[in-house]
């Protein structure tokens, strides 16, 4: 089989081998260009929103998009609220395995509270959720790495769903 490229006839084997070579070269280039630098500092916000919620959905590999039919539908798939037949609520705390950086007193982790209820068949369902993430206590340091105190960063998201 031959393919015409421009004014020249080229064999199909050559075209396929060139395409495979280009794909392999791009695989080698991607990891090299993904190196982190100082320019990337502070460019990603709200990463806590990617943390999964709901023990049922976490245990099933986060398949909540297809099966959400309770208060956790607010997080995974809001359309799942349409399948609610009764009130639903959930609280979840997901603790981190690593302890905070100071004295182990604070509990870094994710808190998830959600509530949903059907209003009527014609109106639909409503829900609210609160997602709170605490990073624990972290030491403050100056330019000489001397401890100057502590701080406890947190993130908060409030969700309304209809």
What does this structure look like?
The structure is a single chain. The chain is α+β, with helices and mostly antiparallel strands. It is 22% helix and 35% strand. The chain has 4 helices and 8 strands. The protein has helices at 12-33, 55-59, 64-67, 73-76; strands at 2-5, 8-11, 88-95, 109-120, 124-134, 138-141, 147-151, 154-161. The strands form 3 sheets. Strands 3-4-5-8 form a 4-stranded antiparallel beta sheet, with no helix packed on it. It has a two-stranded antiparallel sheet with strand order 1-2. A two-stranded antiparallel sheet has the order 6-7. The longest helix has 22 residues, at 12-33. The radius of gyration is 25 Å and the shape is flat. The mean pLDDT is 79.
Q: What's this, in brief?
A:
The chain has 162 residues and is of the alpha+beta class. Helices cover 22% and strands 35% of the residues.
Key features of this structure:
alpha+beta; two-stranded antiparallel sheet; flat; 162 residues; 35% strand; four-stranded antiparallel sheet; 4 helices
